[in-house]
Specification:
The complex is a heterodimer of chains A (611) and B (197).
Chain A: E1 3-8, H1 9-19, E2 22-27, H2 34-38, E3 47-50, H3 54-66, E4 70-76, H4 77-93, E5 100-104, H5 118-125, E6 130-131, H6 136-153, E7 157-159, H7 163-166, E8 168-174, H8 190-193, E9 199-200, E10 206-207, H9 208-228, E11 234-236, E12 242-247, H10 249-258, E13 267-270, E14 272-273, H11 277-284, E15 289-293, H12 299-310, E16 316-318, H13 332-342, H14 373-387, E17 390-392, H15 418-427, E18 434-439, H16 440-456, E19 462-467, H17 496-503, E20 506-510, H18 515-527, E21 532-537, H19 541-546, H20 569-572, E22 579-582, E23 587-590, H21 600-604
Parallel strand pairs in A: 2-3, 2-4, 4-5, 5-7, 6-7, 12-13, 12-15, 15-16, 17-18, 18-19, 19-21, 20-21
Antiparallel strand pairs in A: 1-8, 6-14, 9-10, 11-13, 22-23
Helix pairs in contact in A: 1-6, 3-4, 4-5, 14-18, 15-16
Chain B: E1 2-10, H1 15-28, E2 32-36, E3 47-55, E4 69-74, H2 77-82, E5 87-96, H3 103-106, H4 115-125, E6 129-132, H5 134-140, H6 147-158, H7 164-174, H8 180-193
Parallel strand pairs in B: 1-4, 4-5, 5-6
Antiparallel strand pairs in B: 1-3, 2-3
Helix pairs in contact in B: 1-7, 5-6, 6-7, 6-8, 7-8
The chains are: A alpha/beta (611), B alpha/beta (197).
Chain lengths: 611, 197
Amino acid sequence: MKEKRYVMGDTAIARGALEAGVRVVAGYPGTPATEIVEECLGVPGVHVEWANNEKVAFELCTGASLCHVRAMPVMKHNGTNVVTDFLMHVNFTGIRGGLVLISADDPGGLSSQNEEDTRILVHQYAHLPVFDPCSPQEAKAMVKEAFDLSEKTELVFCLRPVTRVCHARGIIEFEDLPKELPAAHYEPDRERFIMSGVEVPKFGGLKRPQIRHRWLNEKQPLLQEIMEESPYNWIEKGKGKVGLVGCGMGYTLIKEAEQCLDQKLPLLKLGTLPLPRKKVREFVKSLEKVVIYEETEPFVEGLFKKIFHEEKIEVEVLGRSGFVPSDGELNLQMVLETIQKAAPGVKVNQPEVPTLDIHIPIRTRTQCVGCNYRGILNALKQTVRKYKGIVAGDIGCHDAGSFRPIELQSTIYCMGSSVPMASGMALAGINRPVFAFIGDSTFYHNGILGLMNAATNKINVNVILGENTVTAMTGFQPHPGTGVTLAGEKTTKVDVPKLAQSMGISYRVVNPYDIKQCREALEAAVKEEGPSLIVSSMPCYLLSTRRGQKVFEPREVVLNPERCNGCMICINDFGCPAISFNKQEKKVSIDPMICVGCALCVDVCKRGAIL
Amino acid sequence: MKMDVVITGVGGQGNIFASLVISQSAMNKNLNVLGAETIGAAQRGGSVVSHIRISDGTIYSPLISRGQADLLIGMEFVEMLRHIRLLNPKGTYLLNAMRIPTVLNNMGLDEYPANEEILEAARKYCPNGYVIEASALAKKLGNIQMTNVVMLGALVKIMPFFDYQEIKWLINANSPERFKEPNVQGFEEGYELIENK
């Protein structure tokens, strides 16, 4: 039975995998891929889980695949970086049950700490095939086909959807799920699955890594052949000597641009890596120039140049190496401007709109009103000021403490890097107290390794674990400190104090809604030699509120304007969106529409003006 | 035919609910719909925007470009202004008269333009606009989170494309049990906010 639903691209991808008979799905939350995992939940016989990190998820899925069942690791681009080590082995061994890696990219860094193009990592570096979808519908079809092709070629297939596919919504056809999933079984094949530098007699004593590398190289012509026939690559005829190439979302923008152009230019739509070489050759036969639109690096552009060089084709290749901007997300404006530049004879008709002569303030995100991080961040801000400390930050909701007005964390890189970076600062001999601030999901992702390292090597670093018991930023996914699984079953919960004890690290558990208690713990940690752990423990306010649970007793908070001298400490060191500064009166005010009554600001004000 | 709708606001104002209702109503008319949302980090008090593209033909990009939108729904003054250039000056806008200052505004380091200044700029850009006190009404009805359904009520009154009974039904169907009744009430009162033309 077929049914049409209006759903997100992530839901479409999940549905495609379920229709293809996926049996194990594992991932780590990350925008824009998070919902793919969640949307796989609830089908009997299909195991769906949040893993500690992406590498664990990928390895787990590979284990399942070697037992001949279909598996899907899901992550955002940063996670694919974490997986690289394993990826550079599984590409050599190949797989058994269909294994489709979902690596979602976020051009423009809309919800990410960097922007990158994982097609390069998966295709150029690991020599594995990649599908680059242009819509939720195509993403669903590609996932299904990727499972079949993965089994046919014995290779990991990758789907690389970008944010505008994952978080687009479209009308998707839901088809029936398979009634039965194939049974798992395992037969050893040590020549394949033992990746080790050992001599292989069959190949005259050559080492196994070289033999497996050769195996992967010999797969490439087969992939090439498959992509020549792929329904995701096609040519659309047009007029003139300038051709347009649209990869994934680039294609949709060219189609939008066509509606503003007075003529149709030849168009090549691409959705696969490797490229369909013959199709590329056919497309450029009567062209002088091609412009390639892709997210985000000039990767297909480079492949075109390579093909043209090898085949002595004299066609100019333009794209994201500068002709089209080399950073950020593609948009219609960029496409129209560059088409006009490449093909000056083409007329562009676009509605003119008036310009605005008014200042529009920039809005940055903050922690939620009522968030417990604001308490521990304020205590840390005070401590850092008093002892001239430095704070290395990490990924997660607390990162907003590094923006204005609080500006506390001095560094933020990637998952778990806070503790090792703080350790390095301490070891550099700056003679200032060094802190690392890390959330709990990030801690279990791989932050725990940095802490263990600090313990073993007796590094004088103060680690603050913001334990809100959930992966809050991506929408409240459970982690090893939550005590429930993704499916909602009760499970073990890591006991952080016991963990610290076993590492021989001093620890203090504080309530972040008690700023004085937090400050005292932080000061004690500063005065102590060696690594110290402060566990700032309180469930996420937003999640608790949604569940009807209280993390504090809300009360009315009022300002006494007589006592307020406009020092702004409650704004600059605390940054609650409910508190604003009135320039005329030189005093602050509290907006009752926004305030939720956590009353943390009462402790922040040194003059007793907030009651 | 085509109808391109942009909804702008601050994370937490209920953009996505409104965009789902609008999209489903178009789907029920057997039209094509393609949309895009801001989800994730930007949710936490940041600037959010939803694009909804409705057409009886093929839709390629989920994003609405400069001057393409037929309708702009602004849940907040500055956020509407931020995306107003997506609106076709011959289109329509519906604005909720609500100011949510930014962090830099709170610090006194950045100016939030006066309401009159914003309205003047909007009028100059597009003459066909409606400004309503949706958040004030939602708060009066007991929950400021109902701003979105109040806005949908007003929308039905000004855009005949959207059917009163159908939108009401969709609001009811998409609301959690305990919010069904208040949300429908908010919708009905929002409808009355706009005077009969």
